[in-house]
From TrEMBL:
Topology versus the membrane: Multi-pass membrane protein
Any one of the GO CC terms: membrane
Protein name: Uncharacterized protein
Xref: InterPro entries: ZIP (IPR003689)
């Protein structure tokens, strides 16, 4: 007995046969999420922005982002991966119906009562017309689908660990996330600049002292830009791939990624600014690291633009889920806890991020957005 899943051919066509408008929206979301990194790069330009960049606030923003990414990955994208694998392993109803119709036609010539045979033919034809676009997936099909979804989920997680391994090989002592001391020092620098402008004898560069320290900070900024660029690449793929499902999935995911890209921009710009005293150079490095996100989207577009079979679609969705969950659990939440010592606030922020995501999906459904 076959289990009829609600997998439609038109969904597959919609996913892989996108219009120019849908592609443009996907790239716009992709670029927007990436350029959010530059917002963090603008922090040294404004004392007001510096005052907003408190460690606890950054921690809460990272936790919110983690909640959004975890929810959308497990609630939407994981299921999409399983759905694509069911299409791959399932039997197309059109083939089953064709066989049934042929059997009915054979039976018609053997049947003494032509009216009964005509009824059988009508029922068979109706069944064929109504279900020809569906797939049937039995228990073995469902088991295979879940297994492969999990395998590619784990592969996506492994890719993030591999990226970290590469970064640490390039610079064993380097940490790619922002340091609380740099945030505090940025606030201190802002106060010194204000005092200097008010006529104080304090010099805004007073605490950044020798050439060796400047070189070290500049190297830190460059390596941070490289590390964040590597991490933004899979996020760019995820954003574009989510847009191939529907807008209600991709818009909140892009917002979640943008939310944690802002602190990453601070992580790039701050050490470069301290090392060179050039706000523009810090912003430039931030912009370069941000380009990795649309680059990831471009790679994804080149892979799927001509359409892929359900197996490859399912594999890509599974890998994206693994990457997003691992980034959230390995990077965002630990960093959030380091910045905001209140575990309660972090827990609540993660749940609020999930709630925002859930409400967004509900609203999009009521609006009929797909």
């Amino acid at each position: 007995m076959y289990h009829t899943s609600t997998l439609q051919r038109n969904n597959n066509k919609k996913t892989m046969g996108r219009t120019s408008k849908e592609i443009a929206i996907a790239f716009a979301l992709n670029i927007g999420a990436g350029l959010a990194t530059c917002i963090g790069g603008l922090v040294p330009f404004s004392r007001k922005l510096i005052s907003l960049a408190k460690p606890s606030r950054i921690g809460i923003a990272l936790a919110l982002s983690a909640g959004v990414m975890i929810f959308i990955s497990l609630a939407e994208i994981f299921g999409k991966s399983d759905e694509e694998f069911q299409k791959f392993f399932g039997k197309n109803t059109a083939n089953i119906c064709q066989n049934l119709t042929n059997s009915c036609q054979d039976l018609r010539f053997q049947c003494a009562n032509r009216n009964v045979c005509n009824e059988i033919q009508t029922v068979c034809q109706t069944f064929t017309n109504e279900t020809s676009n569906e797939f049937h997936c039995d228990k073995a099909c469902r088991g295979h689908s879940k297994t492969l979804t999990t395998v590619f989920f784990l592969l996506g997680a492994a890719l993030i660990f591999l990226l970290d391994f590469i970064v640490h090989k390039i610079s064993p002592d380097h940490k790619h996330d922002i340091d609380i001391e740099e945030i505090n020092h940025l606030n201190h620098q802002s106060v010194l600049v204000k005092d200097h402008e008010d006529g104080s004898n304090s010099h805004p560069n007073g605490s950044l002292h020798n050439t060796k320290a400047h070189q070290s900070l500049n190297r830190t900024g460059i390596l941070t830009a490289l590390a964040i660029g590597l991490h933004n690449l899979p996020e760019g793929i995820a954003t574009f791939l989510a847009a191939s499902i529907n807008l209600k999935t991709s818009v909140p995911l892009a917002l979640g990624i943008a939310l944690h890209n802002i602190p990453e921009g601070i992580a790039v710009a701050t050490p470069v600014y301290f090392a060179t005293q050039s706000k523009w150079k810090g912003l430039l490095y931030t912009f370069i690291s941000a380009l990795a996100e649309p680059l990831g989207g471009l790679i994804c577009f080149l892979i799927i633009s001509n359409g892929l079979n359900p197996f490859v679609n399912g594999a890509m969705f599974g890998i994206v889920v693994g990457m997003m969950i691992t980034i959230s659990l390995k990077e965002l939440i630990p960093t959030a806890l380091r910045f905001c010592t209140s575990k309660g606030k972090i827990s609540v922020s993660i749940l609020v991020g999930m709630l925002i995501m859930a409400l967004s999906l509900i609203i999009f459904d009521y609006l009929g957005m797909e």
